[in-house]
């Protein structure tokens, strides 16, 4: 039986809208442990990493080489510890499930997951997260984790942020619909595979997810899945910091997670950007819990 180790990372360093640091608590409160038990896995909750409050730190403390990236020192501290925790979890024969927090935590999750193995990654997200400290319009690191782990441009010299076992050709975006101009060109010029919401509209979620799994798992040991709740339409997932209309439906999201489970390639997973302050009766956290359960094997029959 699979043992899932839950690791909470209550950060909100990566974005401007406060409240996402309460995401891990909201997801647990929504019944995560019961959902995973119903999926047939054992659950070990490692609690939350200690994360200093943003109010106690200076968001502008950085060197000139760090561009306008906010809270980069704090992000390094948290993600370095998270990478060790994820790597230790895998070494113990368990599967790490990281609860964010903002999407900058993916730097730590992938850093640990791809430390001693070749991995692919499927990025279920409305956004590309492929900015750098100098290209980001906002300076928010939650818009940079994919660039960071792949060592893109100035991230190449930021060793703590790079995931050595992850290659561009095994990275797949699913459901993109909001990209910055510079980021759009960078993704086009990369070896990553990107499926937009238009691709899902045209080809259907079944074909897109099958293709994503094929690309991400080609020639690697296993696959990391990153699930940003703003991937879903804000009509069903209102409690996120950067909602974008036109996301996937409830059933499309469940199907995608069910196929992830059936493919039996999952090495690590994170669920991020749940913001209870913006939510409606914890609806988005409950949906996150349901989707995680589907990713680990819960079925209708």
Automatic annotation (TrEMBL):
Its cofactor is Mn(2+). Mn(2+) binds at residues 103, 125, 127, 129, 228, 230. It comes from Halorarum halophilum. This is Arginase. Keywords: Arginine metabolism, Hydrolase, Manganese, Metal-binding. It is an enzyme of class 3 (hydrolase). GO terms for cellular component: cytoplasm. The gene is rocF. CDD domains: Arginase. It catalyses: L-arginine + H2O = urea + L-ornithine. The lineage of its organism: Archaea, Methanobacteriati, Methanobacteriota, Stenosarchaea group, Halobacteria. One of its GO terms (biological process) is arginine metabolic process.
């Amino acid at each position: 039986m699979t043992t899932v180790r839950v690791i909470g990372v209550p950060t909100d360093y990566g974005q401007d809208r406060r409240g996402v640091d309460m995401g891990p608590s909201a997801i647990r409160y929504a019944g995560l442990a019961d959902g995973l038990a119903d999926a047939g896995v054992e659950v070990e909750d490692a609690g939350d990493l200690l994360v200093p409050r943003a109010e106690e730190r200076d968001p502008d403390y950085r060197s000139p080489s760090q561009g306008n990236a906010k809270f980069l020192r704090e992000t390094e501290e948290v993600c370095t510890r998270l990478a060790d925790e994820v790597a230790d979890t895998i070494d113990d024969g368990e599967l790490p499930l990281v609860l964010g927090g903002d999407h900058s935590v993916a730097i730590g999750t992938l850093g640990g997951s791809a430390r001693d193995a070749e991995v692919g990654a499927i990025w279920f997200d409305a956004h590309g997260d492929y900015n750098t400290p100098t290209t980001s319009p906002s300076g928010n690191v939650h818009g940079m984790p994919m660039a960071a782990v792949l060592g893109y441009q100035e991230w190449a010299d930021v060793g703590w942020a790079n995931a050595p076992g992850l290659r561009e050709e095994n990275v797949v975006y699913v459901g993109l619909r909001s990209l910055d101009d510079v980021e759009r060109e960078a993704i086009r010029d990369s070896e990553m595979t990107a499926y937009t919401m238009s691709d899902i509209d045209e080809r259907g979620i079944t074909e897109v997810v099958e293709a994503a799994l094929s690309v991400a798992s080609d020639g690697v040991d296993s696959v990391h899945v990153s699930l940003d709740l703003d991937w879903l339409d804000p009509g069903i997932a209102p409690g996120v910091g950067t909602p974008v209309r036109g996301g996937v439906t409830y059933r499309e999201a469940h199907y995608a997670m069910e196929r992830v489970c059936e493919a039996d390639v999952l090495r690590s997973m994170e669920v991020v950007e749940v913001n209870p302050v913006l939510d409606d009766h914890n609806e988005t956290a409950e949906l996150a819990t349901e989707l995680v359960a589907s990713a680990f094997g819960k079925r209708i029959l």
